[in-house]
Each structure stands twice: as structure tokens, then as C-alpha cells.
Write a structure and sequence with these properties.
Number of strands: 26
Distance between the termini: 35 Å
Oligomer: single chain
Strand content: 15-25%
Shape: elongated
Structural class: alpha+beta
Radius of gyration: 34 Å
Length: 802
């Protein structure tokens, strides 16, 4: 059995701590009934060590039942006992670790929170990009000014790579810029000192400020490695600049490493800019989801209609929603009848009739009559607000594959500092050269890169979930993403999943006159079934009269007068309610129903004249999408409550491998369980209402639409695009993402496993190779940048019909 099957998906469940120390566990599900939950922003976190320190502090705080901290979203989510602690005390716990925290704004909706985060990330990206580019430009100048010093053999002499670079470039540079080699070495050092101070004090200031803050709170982070490494190189270089004779008198070459400091700062900033860029791009996908939310609403106050900004709407307000408008809030219908397209939220194949007392969801489309609704849920509490919230949580969630990287990151910085100290001592004792010892120690500090391990999985999750949202796929975190990559069997619900989602006339058993009158009556309706009948009649070339009188009967049909004739179009219940004898109509209706169609009876002047069959046809893309799933090596099955004949016809047309018809919700659950018992990894695709038990049981629950599924938290993946190609996109993207994660982790681990010993000098006795901090900094920056860049390649994942 699969362990995750026995838990409820979505927001994490807390597990009780069983041993000391009495730290609360990481938050992995809904809080206990007596606990409250709060999510608040945490500022100042820059690496996995920062995240681990904040989370550990929160978990050990009194009254905390569980906590989780997201490095990528820079947020902490805490479940706590309100009788034992308060939100303000939780904030102080975070601040005591050296990081910033503040309470979230109670007045801002999920959309406003997202907009604020978008602006912040955009500003951060622009700042990092500008500083990194300027620093790289200054670094290029510093490298140029350092060439005469290198050419004089003042550093890099023990590094064959640097010697090769010098032998290759120096003759050309001497020929092009002879004046550069005429400048006294002392002047070059002072110029480099000024440039380095500028970069450290401006572009890299936060590295040193954060490292000092971490030191004061007895911790170490990635900033510590950067600050200690560059600080040591700078201080040594500054000492050489101030007293070169002192070093020369003791047989130590007056070597400086200013260009290394500048380039290290520049490349680390460049890596941070790439990370910010990934976050910014992911936010663009969220903005697309938020676009479903109207910006204004028509509010009825004191009998007057007024169009106001959505932020001015309050719970309990009466709102007028006209045909063609989206619901601005979740609410309850007070008056009016209409058909509302809820496909964006529920995946239902047909619009849902709404009458007084019905519930409506924000973002859904009012298709027919005007409705007056009472606002019941706004902002973050609305259906769209919950989608945005879930998406933001997915951005910073963790995949199980990240566990090892997190454990190593937690101790990485102290271990690297210890290795650097050991390297310095060993070189001093064995080689007797303090400059070479310092060079090796600084190289160890600089080449070590916990960032690569910390970014390997989160950046892939961020980019993949963002790319998924652009493709119409809402993946609720790293764990579902990882499970989706292992799926080998897909189960599809029929209605609204394989079929079009809009009715068409498939057959009719009535004469042209009755058809003309029926379609003429339906001209007065905006109901999808009515539009289908009108379109069908027009295709037949019938002349449709306008109705003299029209009255809609929500959920039953319509009655009225057309060309002086009394016309009824609707269900058998409508005819019974109007006292019309069924006659021969039910025979055709039963035949239509047997084929899986929806029968609509037509009566003229109290006599049933025939019936029209309407049905959802197979979506034009369904067969191709199923073929794509087959090309991915997946077995595709279909579950439906429909009659077997209709189900098998659809299955044959779509190319489905197996069919289970006339299945109740509990039967779908049993079918999923049976496949899992056979060792299959199952993805269940449904509408999220009747299919909720099966969605929760499946290894990966996939919902067509978002409303009910988001509310019940039953699905792991939501297809916002009403197209099964989105499912193939989701599974293909998951597989590509897992490949990217493995590539990132391999590079991050192998880089540190090889790079740190080489920087320490293990190859020097055999090959005479000792890396300079310049090459170490380039390797370090390449490590983190390569991981982020590799993750950004996921943005190029192409979905759709292929």
C-alpha cells in the first residue's frame, strides 16, 4: 500500500512530538481543532541554513503545535495554541533569530497580497540584476588592472590553469595596452582597493551585514561563507597594499586578491538575480489565474445600483450580476434565475441552473438571466482566492527528494568553515607558507556552495508549477509533482472530462413545424440547451418566428406562445406540471436516454409532437490527448455512472483501454484501490464532487476545474484548461521536472564532493595544482547559477497537441 494514501491531501497535518527536545514537528497537515494557524512573511532569509534556523526556533517556541518555513516564498506557517502563545510572540521568536517578521495585513485580499509580492520581487530582481551587472563590469576592470600583477608572478604561480591563462593573454595585452604595464604596482593595488571597497560597501553590503547578524545569533549561513572568504581575501590584500615591504622582507610575495573579491560578490549576486528571476516568472503565472477575478461589482444599496471597486464590497452586500458577467464574489442567489457556467471551477459539463437559494462562486460566468446575489465570501475566502493561496503554497513546497539536501544544508556551513580552518593549519604546518595556506583556505570557503543544494529542488518546483499554471495546470506542491512523475495508469471520468461540455442536438424525432415552433420559443432563452436547439434548427434552414410570450421554468424548460400556438419545450416533468398528456413522446425520449443523450420533449397546443436528443460529444482533442497518454506509456481507463452501451461507445471513439460503467462513487474508490493493490501508480481524473473519494485515494488526484476540488482539498492537480491535453502536459512536465531535480542534485553534490578537496589542495602533491580564489569563485558561482539555469529550462517545456 502507498503510505500517502492514508492521509488527507492539501495543507499539512501536524504530528505529535513524541520525544525530547520538546520541539513541535514540521507542519504537514491541518492543525488540531484547538489550534489556530497563521501565515506571515519572514524577511532576511537567503539560504537553506536561514530557513532551518527560523523553523527550528518556531518549532521550539512554547505553544507551537507545528511550523513550516518556505525559503522560496519567504513565509512561515505556524499552528499554535492560542491559550499558550500569541502571534506577536511568534514574530518575536523569529526576530530573536536575526530575521524580520510582521503580521500579514488583514485588509488585503489574496489578490492584493500577490500583487504586493509581485512588486517586491520585481524590485528585488531589478536591484540584483543592476548590482550584479555593475559589479561584473567593475570585476572586468579589476581583472584588467590585475594582469600586470599576475604577469609579475605575484599570484597564481602555483596554479597551472592561471599560468596558462597568463601565458596566453599577457603577450596580447602587453601589445595592446603597454601603458598598463608602466603603472607602478603600488598604484595598481590602491586602485584595486578602492574598486573593491566600492563593490563590498555597495553591491555586497548585505552579505556582510547578514553574516554579522548570524554571528551575533550564534549561527552561520551562506552569507557567512561569502563574507568570511571575501573578507579574508580583502584583509590580506589590504595588508599587502599598506605594507608590501613587510611581506617582501619575509619572503612572502606582495600578492593581492581584490579581483577575486569583486568577482565573487558579482557572481553570487548574479546567482541571486537568477533566483529572483525564477520567482518573478512564476508570479506571472499566478497573475493569469487572478485575472478571472472582476475588478468591479454592481452593488444594490438603498434601491440604487452603483458600480464600485471590488475592494468596496462587503459581506452581506446585494450584488447584481448581468448576463455575460463573472461573479465577483461567492454568494447566494436572492432573486432571478439563470444558467451559470461553472466549468472553470467545477469541470461540470453543462451550465448549472441557479434559482433563489442557490450558491454561486467567484469567477464563474453568468450566461442567461440577471441575478441578484448576497455576498458570502470575499477575497482570500472566495473560490479564486483559495486557488491563489494554494498556488502560492505550491510554489514554496518541498518534494520528498529534497530531504537529503536539506539535512546536509543544515550542517554544511559549519563543516566547511571547519575544513577551511583545517586546510590553513595543515598548509602552514606542512608547507610553511602562510600565503599559500591562506589561499587554500579562502578557496575552500569560496568554492563551497550550499546554495546549489538548497536551490536544486525548490527552483525546479517553482519553475515547474509556474510553467504548469501557464499551461492550465495547477500542481499543488513538490510532493504531488514527484508522485505524478511515477504514474503508470490514468483513470478518466467521462462526463465533462472526455466530452465537450456543451450540448449539441444529436437526433430528433419530430416534424419540421414542431421543430420550427420549438426553436422559435427557445430564441427567448439564453440556456445552453436552448441555444443548442436554436443552432440545430438554423442549420436545417428553418425560419424561426420570435416568441409572442416566453416564460422560463428553471430546471424544467420553457413555455410560451409562438405564432399563436401554445408551445412547451422541456422535460417530462414540465409536461406533467402543465397537464399535457405524454402520448408517444416518452418512447423516443427513452430511446434517446438509452443512448446516453438528454431528451427534451416538445408539445404544441397540448399535444406532444416529439422529442429532441441533446448530448455532449467527445471533445475534438480527447482522442489525440488519450493517444499522447499512450505515448507516455500510460494505461488509460474510464469510469462513469452512465449506461454501459453509451460508455463503451465513447471509450471506443476515444481509444480508451478499459471501461467501468454504471459505477457509483464508492465503486470508483474500489476500482482505484484494486489497481493500487496490483502495484500500479494511479492518477484519477474527475470533477471533484462525486469523484472526491477516488481522487483522495489515488496516488495523484486530478480535477477538471477548481471550485469544489479546491474547497474539499481532494485533488493534487487541477486542470484549469478544459482539455485532456493539459493532463498529458501535467504528467509530461512532472517527468521532465524530476529529471531536472536529479540533474541539479547530482551536480550540487558532486561539485562540492570534488570541489572542496581540490580547493584544499589534495591534488597539489601529485599534480602541483592549487586553485586560486579567482577560479574557486567562478566555480562556485557556476554551480549555483547552473542549477537555477537548468531549472529555468523547464520554462521551455512545450505542452498542447503534439
Amino acid at each position: 500500500m502507498h503510505e500517502h494514501q492514508h492521509r488527507r491531501r492539501g495543507l499539512p497535518v501536524m504530528q505529535a512530538a513524541a520525544t525530547s527536545p520538546p520541539a513541535a514537528p514540521a507542519l504537514t497537515g491541518p492543525p488540531a481543532p484547538d489550534a489556530e494557524r497563521i501565515t506571515f512573511p519572514v524577511t532576511g532569509m537567503h539560504c537553506a541554513s536561514c530557513q532551518a534556523r527560523v523553523q527550528q526556533a518556531l518549532e521550539r517556541a512554547p505553544g507551537v503545535r507545528g511550523a513550516t518555513v518556505n525559503l522560496m516564498t519567504e513565509q512561515a506557517t505556524v499552528a499554535y495554541d492560542p491559550a499558550a502563545t500569541t502571534p506577536e510572540e511568534l514574530l518575536e521568536t523569529v526576530r530573536s533569530t536575526g530575521y524580520g517578521a510582521e503580521l500579514p495585513s488583514a485588509d488585503r485580499s489574496a489578490f492584493e497580497e500577490q500583487e504586493a509580492q509581485d512588486r517586491s520581487r520585481e524590485a528585488e530582481y531589478r536591484r540584483l540584476r543592476f548590482r550584479s551587472l555593475v559589479s561584473l563590469g567593475i570585476g572586468a576592470v579589476a581583472m584588467l588592472l590585475s594582469m600586470p600583477l599576475m604577469g609579475a608572478g605575484l599570484h597564481g604561480a602555483t596554479d597551472p590553469v592561471m599560468n596558462w591563462v597568463m601565458q596566453t593573454l599577457e603577450p596580447t595585452l602587453r601589445g595592446v595596452m603597454p601603458w598598463l604595464y608602466a603603472i607602478p604596482h603600488g598604484a595598481l593595488r590602491w586602485a584595486l582597493l578602492g574598486l573593491t571597497l566600492l563593490v563590498m560597501a555597495w553591491a555586497g553590503r548585505h552579505f556582510y551585514a547578514n553574516a554579522w547578524a548570524a554571528f551575533r545569533h550564534h549561527s552561520a549561513t551562506m552569507d557567512t561563507l561569502v563574507a568570511v572568504g571575501t573578507g579574508a581575501a580583502f584583509l590580506f590584500s589590504a595588508a599587502v597594499t599598506l605594507a608590501p615591504g613587510w611581506f617582501a622582507a619575509r619572503g612572502v610575495a606582495p600578492d593581492v586578491y581584490y579581483e577575486a573579491v569583486i568577482i565573487i560578490v558579482a557572481l553570487v549576486l548574479l546567482g541571486n538575480a537568477f533566483e529572483a528571476r525564477a520567482k518573478r516568472r512564476t508570479a506571472e503565472a499566478l497573475r493569469g489565474l487572478a485575472a478571472l477575478q472582476p475588478l468591479e461589482a454592481t452593488v444594490v444599496r438603498d434601491g440604487r445600483e452603483a458600480t464600485v471597486p471590488l475592494t468596496s464590497v462587503r459581506r452581506g452586500d446585494t450584488i447584481l450580476v448581468r448576463p455575460g458577467e463573472r461573479m465577483p464574489v461567492d454568494g447566494e442567489v436572492l432573486s432571478g434565475t439563470s444558467a451559470v457556467d461553472e466549468s472553470v471551477l467545477t469541470g461540470e459539463s453543462l451550465p448549472v441552473d441557479k434559482t433563489p437559494g442557490s450558491r454561486v462562486s467567484s469567477g464563474t460566468l453568468n450566461q442567461a438571466g440577471a441575478l441578484r446575489i448576497r455576498a458570502t465570501a470575499l477575497g482570500a475566502d472566495s473560490a479564486l482566492g483559495r486557488i491563489v493561496t494554494l498556488m502560492r503554497e505550491a510554489q514554496g513546497s518541498r518534494a520528498p527528494i529534497q530531504g537529503l539536501a536539506d539535512r546536509i544544508s543544515g550542517v554544511f556551513v559549519p563543516v566547511v568553515v571547519s575544513i577551511a580552518i583545517a586546510t590553513f593549519v595543515a598548509w602552514t604546518l606542512l608547507g610553511g607558507d602562510p600565503v599559500r595556506a591562506l589561499t587554500a583556505a579562502v578557496a575552500v570557503l569560496i568554492i563551497a556552495c550550499p546554495c546549489a543544494m538548497g536551490l536544486a529542488v525548490p527552483t525546479a518546483v517553482m519553475v515547474a508549477t509556474g510553467r504548469g499554471a501557464e499551461l492550465g495546470v495547477l500542481i499543488k506542491g513538490g510532493e504531488p509533482l514527484q508522485r505524478a512523475a511515477d504514474v503508470d495508469t490514468v483513470i478518466l471520468d467521462k462526463t465533462g472530462t472526455l466530452t465537450e461540455g456543451r450540448p449539441r442536438v444529436t437526433e430528433a424525432a419530430l416534424d419540421d413545424e414542431a421543430a420550427r415552433l420549438a426553436a422559435g420559443l427557445e430564441r427567448g432563452s439564453e440556456h445552453p440547451l436552448a441555444r443548442a436547439i436554436v443552432a440545430w434548427a438554423e442549420e436545417r434552414g428553418l425560419d424561426l418566428p420570435a416568441p409572442d410570450r416566453f416564460e422560463a421554468r428553471a430546471g424544467f424548460g420553457a413555455v410560451g406562445v409562438v405564432a399563436g400556438r401554445q408551445v412547451l419545450v422541456g422535460s417530462a416533468r414540465l409536461l406533467e406540471a402543465e397537464g399535457v398528456s405524454p402520448g408517444a413522446g416518452p418512447g423516443a425520449a427513452e430511446r434517446f436516454a438509452a443512448s446516453g443523450a438528454t431528451p427534451v420533449l416538445v408539445a404544441v397546443d397540448g399535444e406532444v409532437r416529439g422529442a429532441i436528443a441533446l448530448a455532449d460529444r467527445l471533445k475534438p482533442t480527447s482522442r489525440a490527448a488519450v493517444a499522447r497518454l499512450h505515448r507516455l506509456g500510460l494505461r488509460v481507463a474510464m469510469l462513469t455512472g452512465d449506461r454501459r452501451g453509451a460508455a463503451e461507445a465513447i471509450a471506443r471513439e476515444a481509444g480508451i483501454d478499459a471501461v467501468e460503467a454504471e459505477v457509483l462513487p464508492e465503486g470508483k474508490l474500489a476500482y482505484v484501490t484494486r489497481l493500487q493493490a496490483e502495484g500500479r501508480v494511479v492518477a484519477m481524473v474527475g470533477d471533484g464532487v462525486n469523484d472526491a473519494p477516488a481522487l483522495a485515494r489515488a496516488d495523484v488526484g486530478v480535477a477538471m476545474g477548481a471550485g469544489a476540488d479546491v474547497a474539499a482539498d481532494a485533488a493534487d492537480v487541477t486542470l484549469l484548461r478544459d482539455d485532456l491535453h493539459a493532463l498529458a502536459d501535467a504528467l509530461g512536465l512532472a517527468r521532465r521536472t524530476m529529471g531536472t531535480m536529479r540533474q541539479n542534485l547530482f551536480w550540487a553534490f558532486i561539485y562540492n564532493v570534488i570541489g572542496i578537496p581540490v580547493a584544499a589542495g589534495v591534488l597539489y602533491p601529485a599534480l602541483g595544482l592549487l586553485l586560486s580564489p579567482v577560479l574557486a569563485s567562478a566555480a562556485m558561482a557556476f554551480s549555483s547559477v547552473s542549477v537555477v539555469t537548468n531549472s529555468l529550462r523547464l520554462r521551455g517545456f512545450q505542452g498542447g497537441m503534439r
